[in-house]
Amino acid sequence: MEKEILIQVKNLKKYFKVGKNATLKAVDGVSFNIKKGETLGLVGESGCGKTTCGRTVLGLYGATDGEVLFEGTDIHKLKGKAKKEYTKNAQIIFQDPYASLDPRMTVGDIIAEGIDIHGIYKGKERTDRIYELLQLVGLNKEHASRFPHEFSGGQRQRIGIARALAVEPKFIVCDEPISALDVSIQAQVVNLLIKLQNDLGLTYLFIAHDLSMVKHISDRVGVMYLGTMVELASSENLYAKPLHPYTQALLSAIPIPDPEIEQSRSRIMLEGDVPSPINPKPGCRFAPRCKYAKPVCSEVSPVFKEVEKDHFVACHLFEDK
Ligand SMILES: Nc1ncnc2c1ncn2[C@@H]1O[C@H](COP(=O)(O)OP(=O)(O)O)[C@@H](O)[C@H]1O
Ligand code: SF4
Ligand SMILES: [Mg+2]
Questions:
Q1: Residue 226: nearest ligand to its CA?
Q2: What is the tens place of the pLDDT at every residue in 237-250?
């Protein structure tokens, strides 16, 4: 059975005014769906707009244009009670577990932040819920009275996960939740997120700057380049058959554990700098770094379209497919 769609993002734009006549187009016309219980990975180099996209989908930023439909309703048009309900349903896990936990608050109070804001539990029920959440993320109830500095990076990220889960959300934006952690801890946190998703029926937008860990957790993966979505496909398809020149370059940068394959394959080096998202030039944003670029590429923006079943690409090489 086809899964139901939970979130529909349609031509979403988020611009920031910078200086007098400059517009920074952090997210510039991005579209995707996320199905119930699914993980959509979102990857791309630092500064390409992943966090801005995640925050605009959560309603933490207003949208410059476009829509974010949650269960069919545009979240940027919500008011009052319905708006508050969305802030409960849609949570975030932050990139930096050191900066995102208030050092003066106990772990229990940090976890209960959402519970207190939404007035869900008080007294003993609140305490029991904190204990339950700590256990859910692999910590224990003695941890409730301690402070963030007493924990390792991996444990702090577990606290951040418990905080996000406290209000029983349906959807979580995981914004590079493992980037700041030791490699040895990364898989543990990813496996915890997968387990929680299965147990609680959660839907994730999982942001990462490289493609290696995203494959393991994502059902589908979207690749962003300078505010635009350049490719979107199932994880298997994207890794086995990347179509966009940028995705091909990103994938070729991941080491493969098999030394024979690793030695025989060629790396595509990304040349040139990431251009600025301030007043971007017309045409394909990847053109200055693309070895296949043709004249049309720097004049006309390629359309993001389905070139094979469930495989979307924005590139002039696929325009007539
Ligand atoms: N509040 C803001 N004001 C102005 N520019 C911003 C703001 N937030 C992000 N940006 C800019 O938007 C672009 C995308 O940033 P971000 O979404 O953080 O990218 P990523 O998460 O992919 O690293 C960057 O050029 C960044 O400098
Ligand atoms: S549209 Fe042109 S410049 Fe852009 S990725 Fe495709 S071939 Fe390269
Ligand atoms: Mg970011």
A1: 1
A2: 999 999 999 999 99
